[in-house]
Amino acid sequence: MSEVMKPERAEMEDYRGFVRRNFLVEGLEAWVVEPKEAPAARPWIWRAEFWDHEPQVDVGLLEKGFHVGFIKVGNTFGCPAAVRQFDAFYLHVTERFTLAKRMALEGLSRGGLYCYRFGGLYPERVACIYADNAVCDFKSWPGGKGTGSGSAEDWTKLLVDYGFTSEQEALEWGGNPVDHLVSLARAGVPVLHVCGDADATVPYAENSAIVKERYRGLGGSYEEIMKPGMGHHPHSLMDPTAIVEFIFRHAAGG
Prior knowledge:
Blueprint: E1 11-15, E2 18-25, E3 28-34, E4 44-47, H1 56-62, E5 67-71, H2 80-96, E6 103-108, H3 111-121, E7 126-132, H4 152-162, H5 167-172, H6 182-186, E8 191-196, H7 208-217, E9 222-227, H8 241-251
Parallel strand pairs: 4-5, 4-6, 6-7, 7-8, 8-9
Antiparallel strand pairs: 1-2, 2-3, 3-5
Helix pairs in contact: 1-8
């Protein structure tokens, strides 16, 4: 169960000039950063992984009245336990902080696994998805079963976190983001992918390109910002205006 803690009692600290309120959800560290002024709709964006890495989108949205949420589920690749922890966090912040029932999801790199796994199960809670050089198939990363480098250590951990009894079971599993798009498309959830076409860690052809083809084939709204010649890093854009405007357009109404 989430620790019962009203927003005004949560531990406070500064985050880039905004108030960050820290609390626990099922024993995990979590927080919500508050804008200076929030509209009645209480819109928010949920960063799935890598807190404060290339934060220009989050800061831009804070300046536009969005809250920003985060829970430290650890490096668990969007596994079933992480999805349950995300669910607990969602219920906590929508109740205790009265945040909007529909939010923007932000998935950088492996954060894409969290966003699409959670969003696919709860599409009614999602206003839009922003994915950035996102992992959309764990066979690509950390599995390294395509052209990418993969990560043997992370692949071994993923097998444990998901409870797979063998590598073959993982390879045959049908719950990766690339396989799990129907519910989001039916719910009309727009997605934006920012991609480097020279990404050797999370190759475009094995991840975002497949989402693009399949999501549009399902009638879903897929937008893309391609960064020619760019690899896996840096994430985001030096000028995040296009990303901020996409999220604001689809999620500002809560």
